[in-house]
Structure formats: C-alpha cells, structure tokens
Amino acid sequence: MKLLFSENELLPQYDENLIGIDEAGRGALAGPMMMAACKLNKKIDGLCDSKKLSEKKREELYEIIIQNSNYLILAFSSEQIDTLGLSACLKTGLMLIKRHFKTHSHFLYDGNTNFGINGIKTLVKADAKILQVSAASILAKVGKDRVMNFLAKEFPCYEFEKNKAYGTKTHRELIAKFGTCKLHRKSFKLL
C-alpha cells in the first residue's frame, strides 16, 4: 500500500508532530546503509537535502539537529543487506522508526513507497521540500560519512574517506586492483 502526497496537497514546512525519514548509503557498494528519523522540537534554518550541502555545513547542522530534536539513526550492515535484501532492510527500518516514536505523530518518508508499513506517507524529493525530512537526510548522511571515514583507516586502499563507498570511477578501479573486502556488498554488482 502506497500513501503518496499528491503534488497539489499542501505540505507544512514545520509541523511539530511530523517525523521525517530518509536514508543514506542505499546505493553504496560497501559499508552500512543508514536510516534516520527526526522530529524537530523547533524550526531550524538552513535545512535542505543533505546532498546539496557542503560537508562542513552538514556537520554544523547535524549538531544543531541532535540538540533540537527527537531522532533515531539506524544502521544496516553490508551483511544484513546481502542476507535480507535492501527492501527488507528498509521495511524493517520503517517498522523500528514507527515503534520508536509516539503513535500520534505522523510520518513522511522520502521516496515513492512505504514498503507496506501503514501510516507512513511518502513523497519523492521530500528531503528537499520538508524540514523534518531534510533533517533526517542530514543525520543519515553524516552518520554514513563518519562510519566510512572510520572504516577508511582499517581499509585504506579503497579510499572510503573520499568516495564514501559509492561506485565512483576510482572506487571501481581500486576494487579491480585489490578485489573486494568484507565491507563490500556481495549482492551488488560491483563492476
């Protein structure tokens, strides 16, 4: 069941009962996928899609968000993604998020499917349109980047601190040269 916001439906920019949800690392070739949910305690200026912000600005906003919200950040490992599948991980994440927050809240997930979880609405590009989803986007992205920066120290040959495990040309060349490591998703076609 999909609960989509229509393009004509008016969406509030700030709603104290709205939980925004987004993920980062969904298409990465290695490392975890992070999901975040965020209920803001106040309106925060400067929020937008994490991909449109500099790393420095994301880090600054991350600190402001965690001090001014009720939030949850989840991580699904490469092994979980390979074993369960990406969709099952996303569905599990949505279920866990829904359980974490009070029932009188309502939920908005960035994308076009709620993976059959009742009560979660979806909106494509919500991370660029809705503050709470923008905040969740930033939490997930900073969380993912921090993990990849840490893992880069253990696996320096893959330059995770630069590519964050996405399928860049350089990352693919490094996989061709060194093979995969235990962090790479075996269920993804890497080359």
UniProtKB/TrEMBL annotation:
Main location, first listed in the record: cytoplasm
A family per Pfam: RNase_HII
Binding site for a divalent metal cation: 22-23, 110
A molecular-function term among this protein's GO annotations: RNA-DNA hybrid ribonuclease activity
Cofactor detail note: Manganese or magnesium. Binds 1 divalent metal ion per monomer in the absence of substrate. May bind a second metal ion after substrate binding.
Subcellular location per the Swiss-Prot or TrEMBL entry: Cytoplasm
Entry GO CC: cytoplasm; ribonuclease H2 complex
Cofactor needs: Mn(2+); Mg(2+)
Domain RNase H type-2: 16-191
Reactions accelerated catalytically: Endonucleolytic cleavage to 5'-phosphomonoester
EC number: 3.1.26.4
Any single GO BP term: mismatch repair
Alphabetical UniProt keywords: Cytoplasm, Endonuclease, Hydrolase, Manganese, Metal-binding, Nuclease
Top-level enzyme category: hydrolase
Xref: HAMAP family: RNase_HII_B
PANTHER family: RIBONUCLEASE H2 SUBUNIT A, RIBONUCLEASE HII
Function description: Endonuclease that specifically degrades the RNA of RNA-DNA hybrids.
Protein's name in the database: Ribonuclease HII
Organism: Campylobacter estrildidarum
